[in-house]
Amino acid sequence: MFNVELYNGNREEKYQLVVKQLKALLEGETNAIANLANASALLNQFLDRINWVGFYLAEDGELVLGPFQGLPACVRIPFGRGVCGTAASKQETLRVEDVHLFPGHIACDAASQSEIVVPIIKNGTLIGVLDIDSPEKNRFDEIDQKHLEIFTETLVEYL
Fold first, then answer.
1. Alpha-carbon distance 73 to 120, whole Å?
2. Does residue 119 contact residue 79 with C-beta atoms inside 8 Å?
3. For the CA atoms of the chain, what is the radius of gyration?
4. Do the beta carbons of residue 135 and residue 51 sit within 8 Å?
5. pLDDT digits (tens, 9 = 90+) for 13-51
6. Low pLDDT (below 50) residues in the chain
7. pLDDT value at position 68?
8. Residues 6 or more apart from 118 whose CB is under 8 A from it?
9. What's the burial of 30, exposed, middle or buried (CB within 10 Å: 0-12/13-18/19+)?
10. How many alpha carbons lie under 13 Å from residue 109 in its C-beta half-sphere?
11. Which of 17, 32, 60, 76 lies 20 to 30 A from 11 at CA?
């Protein structure tokens, strides 16, 4: 697999390479858990300045912990609660510059300062969310949001 860290392109080009790596990694595999596990590992390798990356899967009105990289996490999050539950209920990406200012934030890791959550939607149905935390405030920007949304749209093809 191509090592993105050694590539000298700009951030957008690096994200495009990660999406290509995702496709190569998941090609031919139909197991959703295996694909989510590899997707979280790929993002963990690619993204710097993060302390948690993984998935929560929609089940009976709540999100249930799925494959991830990082410290142990909250297992169940009701829709509408915290950043993940709010992104799930609104079915829109949430980029939070300072999680301590987000109403109802659920602190699974005290080191987390900022967060981005991208809903995973297939055929109009919420499958879950991609959740990424950082120990830095203001870690995620528009470029991250745009390309993580592309990443999840690509991932959906393999779920």
1. 19
2. no
3. 15
4. yes
5. 999 999 999 999 999 999 999 999 999 999 999 999 999
6. 1-6
7. 97
8. 87, 93, 129, 130, 145, 148, 149, 151, 152
9. exposed
10. 20
11. 32
Q: What is the 3-state secondary structure (H, E, C) of 15-67?
A: HHHHHHHHHHHHCCCCCHHHHHHHHHHHHHHHCCCCCEEEEEEEECCEEEEEE
- Count of H helices and E strands in the chain? 4, 6
Sign (positive or negative) of CA dihedral 85, 105, 38, 43:
positive
CA torsion 77-159-41-120 (nearest 10°) is -40
**158 three-state secondary structure:** coil
pLDDT of the residue at 111: 82
Query: In DSSP terms, which residues pair with 96 in a beta bridge?
Result: 115
Superfamily of domain 4-156: GAF domain (3.30.450.40)
